[in-house]
Amino acid sequence: MVYFILKRLIQSVFVMIAVAFLAFSLFRFVGDPITQMTGVETSIEDQERLREELGLNDPFVAQFVRFTGDMLQGDFGYSYRTRQPVGEMIATRVPATLELGIVALLISLVVGIPTGVFTALRPRGFATQTILLTTLVGVSIPTFVIGIMLIFLFGVQLGWLPTFGRGGTVQIGGWETSLFTIDGWRALILPAITLGVYQLTLTMRLVRAEMMEVLRSDYIRFGMARGVPMRSLYFRHALANTMVPVITIIGLQFGGVIAFSIVTESVFQWPGMGLLFLESIRFVDIPVMGVYLVVIAFFFVLVNLIVDLLYLAIDPRLRVKDTS
Amino acid sequence: MIAFIKRYEGLWLFTRSPAAIIAAIVAFFSIFGAIFAPLIASVNPYDLASFSLMDGLLPPVWEDYGNPKFLLGTDDQGRDMVSSILYGARLSLIIGISAMTIATVLGVGLGLAAGYYGGRFDMIVMRIADIQLALPAILTALLIDGIARGILPTEVQQDLRVAVLTLAIALSLWVNFARTARASTFVQMQKEYVQAAIIMGQRPIRVMFVHILPNILGPLLVIMTVDLASAILLEATLSFLGIGLPADSPSLGTLIRIGMQFMLSGEWWILWIPTVFLVALVISINILGDFLRDVFNPRLR
C-alpha cells in the first residue's frame, strides 16, 4: 500500500514536470520574450544586455531548471499585458473558480446519482425514457446556450437572479468567498447550474450504466434467489459496487468542470481563472497562459491522487493485492 | 454478406424510429441549405453592398412590422437572418466536417499502427493520448489557438483563422479515434485472416488499410457522428468566446455572440433563431449517432 501511494506520487511529480516543461516551451518559443518586454525605442544593445541578464542565452536545460525552481519558490514571472506578477493575478482568481466548480460538481452528484439509480431500476418506465431523452438534449445544448437561456429566463424575464459577477464577497484569511452572503449565493446559482448540467448528464448516464451492469451480476441474482430484500440488494449491495467507477469519474470530471468554467465564466462575467485565461489568449499573454496551465494541472493531479487514495479506502481488494 | 444483412437491418430499424427519421430530415436540410447557401440566400452576408442599414432590426414576418422579403427578420446591420444562418451553418459545417476528417485520418492512422505494431510505438501513442484525454477538448483547442496567435505573424492571422480553428478542433478530437481504432485492431490481430495476410508476406500498410480497416469501420462510424457534433459545438463555443471567427465572417457561434447584445432590447430573433438552429442541428447529429450505435451494437438493444 505504501508502495502504491509512493508510485502514484512519483507519477504525479512526472506529470507536473511535463506540464511545467510545456509551460516553459510556450514562454520560450512562442514569440520572443525580449520583444514582448521592451518597447520599440529600446536599442538592440539594450535588448541584448537584457537577454544576457535574464539568462536567456543560457543552455536550454539550465533555463528550464531555473524556471521550475522559481515556480517552486512561488515566483511565476510577470504578465506581458498588465506587468503585474502572474502569481498574484491568478491567486486572486482561484477562489471564484474553485467555489463555482465545487458547487457545480455537487449539483451534478446530488442530482445525477439518484436519477441514475432510478433510471437503472426502471429501465422501461415512461419517466426513464423521458429523463434519457432530456439528457440527450442536455448533452447537445452547448454550455453557453444553457447559460444564455438561464440568464434570459431568470435574469431578464423573471428578474429573480443577477446575471453577472459574484455578488457580495467576504474575505476570510485571504480567501475571497461568496458562500457566506445571500447576495453571493444568488449570484452563484445560475453559473453553477450552467456548469453542472453537462456533468450531471454524464454522472447520470454512468451511474445508470454501472448500476444496470451490476444488477445483472451473479451475486445479485444469488441474493434475489436467497430472498434478500430488494431494497437492501439495490441500495446496499448494488449501489456500493456502482460507486467505485463513479469516484474515478468525479476525478476526471473535475478537469471538465475547470475547463468548462472558462465558458461559464465568460457568459456570466464571473471573475475567475477562466476569464483571465481567455483574456490572456486574446492578448497572447504567454506567462499567464503558462501559469494557468500549471495551476490547473496541479489541481487536476491533486484531485486524481485523492481519488486513488479513496479507491484504496473503498475497494479492499486493492489493499490485499499489495501484500501478496 | 454479414455487412449486407446488417445494412438492411439498420434500414428496417430506421423506419421504426421516429426520432432518427426526424433527426435525419433536420440534418439533411441543414447540410443541403449549407451547401447551396449561395443559391438559396437572398443576400450575401459577407458582401457589404448586398444589404442596407435601412432594413435593420426588422422582426420576422409573423410579427408586426415584419417584411416578407426577410422571413426571419434582420439584424442591426440589415442583414437577412435566413441568409446569415445559411452562411453561418455553411461555415460551421465546413469547419466541423474538415476537423472531424482530419481527426479521423490522424486518429485512425495512429490507432491502426499502434494496434498493429504494438510495443514501444503503441506505448508512446497511448501515453500522448492519455495526457490529452486528461485535458478537456476545449482547453486543448483554446491552447492551440493561443499558440497559433503567438507564432503566426499578424498579417496572415486573419486569413488563416478558419485553418487554425479547424486544426485546433481536429487536434483536440483525434484521441477518441486512436483509442477505438487501436482497441478494435487488437481484436482483429488475433483473427486468422490477419495472421494469414501477414504470413503471406503482405506489406503492413496493406494489411492495415485493406484488411483490418473495413472490419473496424462500425464503431469508428459511430465516433465520427458523435465527434462531428462535438466539433460543431466546439467551433460554436470558441466563436462565442470571441476566440474563433471574427464578426465579418460569422459562424453560428459568432451569430449567437452578436445576438447576446440584443437580449435585453427585445430583438429576440437575432439571438434565438441562430441558437435554436445550432441546437437542432447538434441534437439531430447526436440522435443519429445514438441510433448508429444501437445498430452496430445489438447487445444494447
Give the SSE order of chain A as H and E letters: HHHHHHHEEHHHHHH
Low-confidence stretches of chain A: none
Count the beta strands of chain B: 0
Share of residues in strands of chain A: under 5%
The two chains with the largest interface, and their residue counts, are: A-B, 38 and 35 residues
Summed over residues and divided by their number, the pLDDT of chain A gives a mean of: 80
- CATH architecture identity of the domain at 100-301 in chain B: Orthogonal Bundle
Largest sheet of chain B: none
Rg measurement of chain A, Å: 24 Å
Flag low-confidence runs of chain B: none
Specify the helix fraction band of chain A. Answer: over 70%
Q: What gross morphology of chain B would you assign?
A: globular
Spatial gap, N to C terminus of chain A: 11 Å
Helix proportion of chain B: over 70%
Q: What's the number of helices of chain A?
A: 13
- How large, in whole angstroms, is the Cα Rg of chain B? 22 Å
Structural class of chain B: mainly alpha
- And the CATH topology of the domain at 100-301 in chain B? MetI-like fold
User: Oligomerization state of this entry?
Assistant: heterodimer
User: Taking strands numbered 1, 2, ... along the chain, how are they ordered across the largest sheet of chain A?
Assistant: 1-2
- Classify the secondary structure makeup of chain A into a structural class: mainly alpha
Question: Can you describe this structure?
Answer:
Chain A is built from 13 helices and 2 strands. The model of chain A has no long low-confidence stretch (mean pLDDT 80). Chain A has 324 residues and is an all-alpha fold. Chain B has a domain at 100-301: MetI-like fold (Orthogonal Bundle), CATH 1.10.3720. In chain B, helix 6 (137-151) crosses helix 7, helix 8 (192-199) runs antiparallel to helix 9 (204-215) and helix 11 packs antiparallel against helix 12 (268-296). The mean pLDDT of chain B is 80. Chain A binds chain B through residues 15, 18, 26, 30-31, 136-137, 139-145, 148, 151-152, 156, 252, 255-256, 258-260, 262-263, 266, 277-278, 280-282, 284, 286, 289, 293, 296, 300, and chain B through 131, 134-136, 138-139, 142-143, 145-147, 149-151, 229, 233, 236-237, 240-243, 256, 260, 263-264, 271, 275, 278-279, 282-283, 286-287, 290.
